[in-house]
Specification:
CATH superfamily of chain A: Glutaconate Coenzyme A-transferase
Structural class of chain B: alpha/beta
Number of helices of chain B: 4
Helix content of chain B: 10-25%
Radius of gyration of chain A: 18 Å
Oligomer: heterodimer
Distance between the termini of chain A: 51 Å
CATH architecture of chain A: 3-Layer(aba) Sandwich
Radius of gyration of chain B: 17 Å
Shape of chain A: globular
Number of domains of chain A: 1
Strand order of the largest sheet of chain A: 4-3-2-1-8-9-10
CATH class of chain B: Alpha Beta
CATH topology of chain A: Glutaconate Coenzyme A-transferase
Largest sheet of chain B: 10 strands, mixed
Largest interface: A-B, 53 and 39 residues
Strand content of chain A: 15-25%
CATH class of chain A: Alpha Beta
Strand order of the largest sheet of chain B: 4-3-2-1-5-8-10-11-12-13
Structural class of chain A: alpha/beta
Chain lengths: 249, 223
């Protein structure tokens, strides 16, 4: 068994039009920038995939990563808790123009829905959002005298995540707070691909330190020295970068 | 005499009620200031929704590591004994009653403890983040806020007119004029600035202030 994928292009080849894609990260921390940009490259070359439903905490920042996917017109719907950022213009303009759908989910409910999707739990009850606009239309039940709102699991066709170490079996570790949603998304997607900063042979990760066991991971692709979305945005990066003749024009 | 506390002074007052060793979540923005005023000899452990317990202040400019941020996406540092965890564990800490106190901002707080702090209405792009989770589960949910809005309207009200974040969850409100508890469906005045009268305070409060014995003096150092 060897889950290594040779190139980023190979890593995103199976994602079809209309797919639901979970993308790890909280803001720029943990955002799999290279995998996202490989997906954009594929779209620009082939016109596919489009009309994607993307699940992430946010809805992109600046003109790289998820914001660049939205800007290119690949995303039909965002499922997120906080579609604002330092520079949310790409999502905001499409949303206000009615060109992208939004399902707004409280952050903890988003995490638990994804966890439930990965754990085989179709629905659960949470106190979060009870009595608010975001509970509208959802079943409510009382347990031990207190009201709770029923929420459904979230699953996806694909998850694209960023990890620190990955071994050939798909066991993963993460770097600091870049972990956030990624271990949950790895469980909840039919196929999970992780870009890892360093690929190691089995045994290269102490079993005591494995955060995501390889059973939840379909493939890993090594991206040494990955870009950090926050750093790209601070440098006003745009993806895809403008070609020289466009700059002159 | 002081007729209105600054945000730093409100944060200082809120910090006095946090016990040594308490697990605390501070909302993004103004509530984050509470961390600066921990009384000497006490150390709280701060939680941030994106998966860190035990973080410290911001690093110097140029030394940020953007994998190490708080829920406001600002760079942070770690204290000895810090821990990382994924988002489902993070919100289990919130909803599961493991946090001792959450301190949040507010647009409005109602006398029954309802809080409105996530949306000012239907215009623009809605965004909720962790606000609706944070009002549930902490042993104490407190609010730090100016006593009135920028145009002078009460923020402590009979019932919220803005979209609710949560129902019946706030237990204490630290304002620029007073410390008010929510108890049995009404506001109970605990402390007020000595420079303002009870009538003056009631006039800028949108619901009846009840007394449970005499209100104490709200005395805060110059900061």
């Amino acid at each position: 068994m060897d889950k290594r994928i040779p190139t980023l292009a190979d890593a995103v080849v199976g994602i079809p039009d209309g797919a639901t894609v979970m993308i790890g990260g909280f803001g720029g921390s943990g955002a799999p920038v290279e995998l996202i940009h490989a997906l954009i490259d594929r779209y620009l070359a082939t016109g596919s995939p489009r009309n994607l439903t993307v699940i992430n905490n946010n809805a992109g920042n600046g003109h790289v990563g998820i914001a660049a996917m939205i800007e290119q017109g690949m995303v039909g719907k965002m499922v997120c808790s906080f579609p604002r950022s330092a520079d949310p213009r790409v999502f905001t303009e499409k949303y206000l123009a009615g060109e992208i759908e939004l399902e707004l989910v409280p952050q903890g409910t988003l995490a638990e829905r994804i966890r439930a999707g990965g754990a085989g739990i179709p629905a659960f009850y949470t106190p979060t959002s009870y009595g608010t606009d975001l509970a509208r239309g959802k079943p409510v039940a009382e347990f031990d005298g207190r009201p709770y709102v029923q929420e459904r699991w979230l699953k996806a066709d694909f998850a694209l995540i960023k990890a620190e170490l990955g071994d050939h079996y798909g066991n993963l570790t993460y770097r600091m707070a870049a972990r956030n949603f990624s271990p949950l998304m790895a469980m909840a997607a039919a196929r999970t691909v992780a870009q890892v900063t360093r690929a190691v042979a089995p045994g290269g990760i102490d079993p005591e330190h494995v955060v995501t066991p390889g059973i939840f991971v379909s493939g890993i692709v090594e991206v040494a020295n990955p870009a950090q979305e926050e750093a790209l945005n601070r440098a006003d990066a745009v993806y895809p970068p403008a070609r020289p003749q466009e700059v002159q024009a | 005499m002081t007729t209105k506390l600054t945000n730093a002074q409100i944060a200082w007052r809120a910090a006095q009620d946090i016990a040594d060793g308490a697990y605390v979540n501070l909302g993004i923005g103004f509530p984050e200031m509470v961390a600066r005023f921990q009384p000497p000899g006490r150390q709280a452990v701060f939680h941030t929704e994106n998966g860190v317990l035990g973080f410290g202040e911001a690093p110097p400019a140029g030394e940020e590591d953007w994998d190490l941020i708080n829920a406001g996406k600002k760079a942070i540092t770690l204290k000895p004994g810090a821990a990382f965890f994924h988002h489902a564990d993070s919100f289990a800490m919130v909803r599961g009653g493991h946090l001792d106190v959450a301190i949040l901002g507010a647009y409005q707080v109602a006398q029954n403890g309802d809080l409105a702090n996530w949306s000012t209405g239907p215009r623009g792009v809605p965004a909720v983040g962790g606000a609706m989770d944070l009002v549930h589960g902490a042993k104490r949910v407190a609010v730090v806020t100016d006593h009135v809005t920028k145009d002078g309207k009460p923020k402590l009200v009979e019932s919220c007119t803005l979209p609710l974040t949560g129902v019946g969850s706030v237990t204490r409100i630290y304002t620029s004029l007073a410390v008010v508890d929510v108890q049995d469906g009404h506001f109970v005045l605990r402390e007020k600035l000595p420079a303002i009268s009870l009538d003056e305070l009631q006039a800028v409060t949108g619901a009846r202030l009840h007394l449970d014995g005499a209100a104490g003096d709200l005395i805060v150092p110059e900061l």
